[in-house]
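Researcher: Please predict.
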Amino acid sequence: MDINAILKKIDKDFILSKAEKLGNTDFAKVLKESETIQKLAAKEGPLQKFVNDVTLLIALVKDYYTGTYRDIPIKSVAAIAFTLLYILNPLDLIPDFLPGIGQLDDAAVVALCLKIIRDDLDKYAQHTTQQPDTKS
């Protein structure tokens, strides 16, 4: 298995072309499987350094899906949903069960997605910090 050749397939077009095929059922699946996705991100390995980002991405998809936050292009939300579903899929470009390398492609997809949607994610993070605390 040529890891470098596999990782080179992960580019902006890879994420955006897959993302444009997603719909509401995919967003709902992200929310339904959010705990599992977070646990997968928290596992020891290359994906672990993105655990806080994954949590923020899940929150953004939730807020978009429920209508709480819509100030983001749908292509960005779809890219996020694709990325989170990619983490969930154990049989992606590099199967997750391969020790030591199984999460390399997952981490590459997350890193690239973050790069693609960075401005939108920063705007969302700022929005969430400006919201009043309703739990008091």
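Model: The chain has a mean pLDDT of 95.
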